[in-house]
Amino acid sequence: MSEPSTPNPSNPFQDNAKAPKASLKKVKVLLGQIVATPNALEQIPTADIQRALARHVQGDWGELDRADQRRNDAALQNGERLLSAYKTTAGKRFWIITEADRSSTCVLMPEDY
User: Fold this and answer.
1) In this structure, are residues 107 and 36 in contact, taking their beta carbons and an 8 Å threshold?
2) How far is CA 50 from CA 70, 92, 108, in A?
3) Cα separation, 42 vs 93, whole angstroms
């Protein structure tokens, strides 16, 4: 058994009480390990990250055009990588990418890509 990790105040995903809540019926995407770039953590309020992750898990791809939304819908069936785009409450655009094997999901700013 592994030891509990030491709390890290800069990691908004460490405390399960802060994790996005979604009904099991609505979960379409398994996120794996959730990570974020340092730049994203500096620029995106934790609440905005949590709301976006809750939408991403449910297959709400945010501010993508129709073609990219269809690609994501197909990727759910084909096991390909998923990309969602959202805006912070201040209007900054950010992305969420879940890897094809669903082992991890990354929150990042477009310039971090």
Assistant:
1) yes
2) 24, 15, 13
3) 13
Rounded-to-integer distance, Cα 1 and Cα 56, Å = 31
CA dihedral 103, 55, 49, 2 (to 10 degrees): -40
- Amino acid letter, 21: K
pLDDT digit string, tens, across residues 3-53: 444 445 555 555 545 555 555 558 899 999 999 999 999 999 999 999 999
Residues 81 and 72 sit within 8 Å (Cβ to Cβ): no
Contact between 12 and 20 (Cβ < 8 Å):
no
How many residues would you count in the chain? 113
